[in-house]
Design goal:
274 residues; seven-stranded parallel β-sheet; two-stranded antiparallel sheet; binds zinc ion
C-alpha cells in the first residue's frame, strides 16, 4: 500500500509487542511509504504500566526512534500518542516540548477518571446515559483539538469501540465538533484498529468523515498496530472509506529536524485502486 502508517506502538507501553525496528521492517515489507512510531506518552497524572511507558523510559524511546530515523532518513518519523485530559494539559505540554517529536497524536481515552475505552472498565457504561457519554466525549475531543498540543486527532469516535451507540443523531453536537476541528487546523486519522474491536468499524465512521471532508480537514492513516504484523493493516479498506467520504488524497508529514514539528504535505491517491 503506497501510504505511510503514522500510528504504531511498541513493547515499551506495556500492552504492545515488538521493537521499533521490527515495526519499520514490517512497514517496508508491506510496501508502505513511511512509518511513524507513536507509542503512548507516559500517562499523567498517574502512570499505569499497562497503559503507557513511564516518564523514565521516554528518553530511551526517543533515542531508539531517532536512531531509526538516522538509518532510514525520510522513511521513519518520531511520533507519540498523548492523552488529552483537561487537568494534565500543562504537564503534557512540557513533556512534549522536551523532546523532538515530529508529530503528536492526541487521543481522548478518559472522561474524568473513567477510562471508557479500557476493557477493564466496561461496567461504567451500565451506570451512564449513553447520549451524555457521547456528548461529553465530543466536547473533550473538541477541547483536545483546540489545545494546540496535537498534530493529529487519534481514533476520533473511539467512544463507539464497544458498540455503545447514541440513541439520537447528535447532529448539532457533531457539526460543532467538526467546526472546532477544522478551525483548529489539526489532522484526523483514519484508524483501522476499530475493525478488530467489538464495533467492527474503522474510526471515524463514514458519516463523520464526510463532514470532515466537507470542512476541509486533511486525513492521515493509522493502523494503531500493537504488533509488528498489524502495521498497515486494512489500509485498502481505509482508502475506500476515504474516497467514499470525498477525499482525493491525504496528508503526509515531513520531518524538519531542528525546526520543531513536521511539515505537512498533500498527496493524491493513486489513480489505480489501492
Ligand atoms: Zn495502546
Ligand atoms: Zn489510542
Amino acid at each position: 500500500m503506497r501510504l505511510p502508517d503514522y500510528h504504531t506502538h511498541t513493547a515499551r507501553c506495556g500492552h504492545a509487542h515488538g521493537r521499533p525496528d521490527e515495526y519499520v521492517a514490517a512497514a517496508k515489507a508491506r510496501g508502505l511509504t513511511g512509518i511513524g512510531i507513536a507509542d503512548h506518552l507516559p500517562l499523567l497524572p498517574e502512570p499505569d504500566p499497562e497503559l503507557s511507558m513511564g516518564v523514565c523510559d521516554l528518553s530511551d524511546y526517543v533515542a531508539d526512534v531517532q536512531a531509526l530515523k538516522a538509518e532510514f532518513p525520510g522513511y521513519v518519523l518520531l511520533g507519540v500518542e498523548a492523552d488529552y485530559r483537561p487537568q494534565t494539559v500543562s504537564e503534557v505540554r512540557s513533556l512534549l516540548e522536551g523532546h523532538p517529536f515530529d508529530y503528536v497524536i492526541g487521543s481522548v481515552h478518559h472522561m474524568g477518571e473513567w477510562g471508557f475505552d479500557d476493557p477493564r472498565q466496561l461496567d461504567e457504561y451500565g451506570r451512564r446515559d449513553i447520549d451524555d457519554v457521547w456528548v461529553e466525549y465530543f466536547q473533550l475531543v473538541g477541547d483536545a483539538a483546540e489545545s494546540g498540543l496535537f498534530t493529529i486527532l487519534g481514533h476520533l469516535d473511539v467512544v463507539k469501540k464497544f458498540g455503545y451507540r447514541p440513541t439520537r443523531a447528535l447532529t448539532s453536537e457533531l457539526d460543532h465538533l467538526v467546526a472546532r476541528v477544522a478551525a483548529a487546523g489539526v489532522l484526523v486519522e483514519i484508524n483501522t484498529a476499530g475493525l478488530h474491536r467489538p464495533v467492527k468499524e474503522a474510526y471515524p465512521t463514514l458519516d463523520i468523515l464526510r463532514r470532515l471532508c466537507d470542512a476541509g480537514v486533511p486525513i492521515t492513516f493509522g493502523s494503531d498496530a500493537h504488533r509488528p504484523e498489524e502495521v498497515g493493516r486494512d489500509f485498502g479498506h481505509a482508502v475506500e472509506l476515504a474516497r467514499s467520504a470525498g477525499y482525493a488524497g491525504f496528508a503526509s508529514l515531513e520531518s524538519r529536524p531542528g525546526e520543531g514539528r513536521a511539515g505537512i504535505g498533500s498527496v493524491p491517491f493513486e489513480a489505480s485502486p489501492a
